[in-house]
Amino acid sequence: MNSEKIFRYLLVGSGVLMVLIAVGIVATLFVGSIPSFKEFGFGFLYSADWDPSEGRENYGALPFIIGTLLTSILALIITFPFAFSISLFLGEYFKDGVLPSFLRSVVDLLAGIPSVVYGLWGFYTLKPLVAELGLNAQGFGIFTSSVILAIMIIPYASSLGAEVISMVPGSLKEAAYSLGATRYEVVRNVIVPNAGSGIFAGYILALGRAIGETMAVTMLIGNSNEIPTGIFDLGNTMASLIANQFGEAEGLKLTALIEIGLILFVITGIVNYLGKLIMKKLSA
């Protein structure tokens, strides 16, 4: 057997293995959540109850779905101006030099910091600041965890954005300059349209990272099982709920947590799928 066939078999085997792992995860979550689904049905998705009291157990995922989407989307909104500015700075305005190299190193460092470190920094620095400003009495809540999430996902959005911006053909930019376009007009009319799908991909990657984040959010969101009514309220995400309660859960509560894990998996898949559809339209 020649090396080309071995290489091809390795590639095919790797692809099949990834599919099997994904199918295995879905199957495990689905089987584990069957008792919860039989007990609550589709009402589990829109029920706001989370009562583990023996004899009257009742569980619903709505507060945690809302908490997950609210923190992730708010973090993405906070991230956008910073990540986009860094992308333009590194990809177009200052590609080489000491300062861009230093900034790239800092961005890479931010991507590698463990989430528990972000959580500790937020707990001892950001939480007291939020409380001092009167936004929340204790400093915990959706807003506090979203700010930390925003800092955590900036490297994912900015790195990919800078890469695709730097790949915009120079001939297109030179043609625009030759017609009298300013730097801003080149960015708006040439760079952003041509790099739009790649920039958007970076934000989808960042959103996926934010949806699944656990430790930092758990330390700062307040871990309330009520539906948040504003961005400064306490809340809970699906990931933080599982992290907090999975270790001591059993019986129906355990299967409810597994079903929440399945919902989180499905939401992440839907976000990635919609992101790919939008990227195809942007690149068309």
Summary?
The chain is an all-alpha fold and 284 residues long. It is built from eleven helices and two strands, in the order ααββααααααααα.
Helix content: over 70%
Helices and strands, in order, run as: HHEEHHHHHHHHH
Outline: globular
CATH architecture of one domain: Orthogonal Bundle
**What's the mean pLDDT score?**
87
Strand order of the largest sheet: 1-2
The CATH superfamily of one domain is identified as: MetI-like
**Structural class, from helix and strand content?**
mainly alpha
| Largest sheet properties | 2 strands, antiparallel
CATH class of one domain: Mainly Alpha
Beta fraction: under 5%
CA(first)-CA(last) distance? 42 Å
Q: How many H/I helices? A: 11
Low-confidence stretches: none
Tally the beta strands. 2
CATH topology of one domain, what is it called? MetI-like fold
InterPro entries: MetI-like (IPR000515), MetI-like_sf (IPR035906), Phosphate_PstC (IPR011864), Phosphate_Transport_Permease (IPR051124)
Keywords: Cell membrane, Membrane, Phosphate transport, Transmembrane, Transmembrane helix, Transport
Subcellular location: Cell membrane
Protein name: Phosphate transport system permease protein
